[in-house]
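Lecture notes, unit on protein representations.

Consider one protein chain, 375 amino acids long.
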Amino acid sequence: MTRRRGKGEGSLYQRKSDGRWVGSFKPEASSRQSVYGDTRKEAHEKLQKAMRDYQQGKLVANSKQTVRQYLEQWLEQVHHPSIRETTYHEHGILLRVHILPALGHVPLQRLTPQRIQAFYTKKLDDGLSAGYIQTMHAILHKALDNAVKWELVPRNVCDFVTAPRIVRHERQPLTPDQAQQLLQAAKDHRLEALLTVAITTGMRKGELLALRWVDINFNDGSLQVRRTVSYISGKGYIESEPKTQKGRRKIILPPVVLLALKQHQMHQKEARLKAGPRWEEHGLVFCNLYGRYLSAASLTRLFRAVLKAAGVPRVRFHDLRHSAATILLSMGIHPKVVQELLGHSNISMTMNTYSHVLPAMQQEAMEKMNKLFGG
């Protein structure tokens, strides 16, 4: 007669679904714990270790912990201290609005690849972009990597899930002629200096709106990118350092930009006098009429008015960054210089982002080679 297994004793079996071996045991006053292996020997060794760890108090035998309980703990205790405040806010929204309502009730140890895959499909059907879903996938993957490290789950189920592919939409950089039209239309406009800096340096919107006069050195004609700013609902404007070390960069400014900035400084002094006691001095280069941060909504409204006056395509403000890079590369500027100017972390990012410019550069290069050797 086969002896019935007591609590704390283990069992081994092979799953028919995928052929993997499963070892499991039932600790006292807790739910059954499982380990997995590709072979019977691997599963048996893991099972023996898990039972030893449980006996020594190392194993957290709590299969009743839900995905919500774990993710909320991970977000605050592990993830938050290691990321920027703006990223924490964005990831918190994705968790609260999308991930937790769909997966939060599931016991952490019963979260399966099939359930996560179905969640992604549902979000796509609901109209969420592939980029949003890829961000959620990255959050879940990172969180579950930590759960494996803490020995709460035996494997990261996100390793077996396919996130939707992002379809890259074609960028709309301005041509050199269109960029000149834009700056011509911006003459004597509030945005003249801002657009001049944006189209010549490729700085990000957050970097421009966080720029202070102390960051500009008129003596050597340079600008130092030290910070960026974002608006977080409920918290207001949050400044932070650039994401990477390459983001903290020095940019040499051409005379046309220095002249535009000096004129802008004079206009700002006039605006300060006009605002009187309502002016708040923060040292910002590109601010609103009262010295405070220029809001994204105001910038968009003003920018669209200049685009309309210039008669150029209605592009996003961020497309000015792409315009600057495209124009520089088409002028034959070395990609390494463009990388440093834009603050990309590595040159491959620059080359991948602006690969559409390369064929024209290659054509010009071959024409020069033909001129040299073709006689």
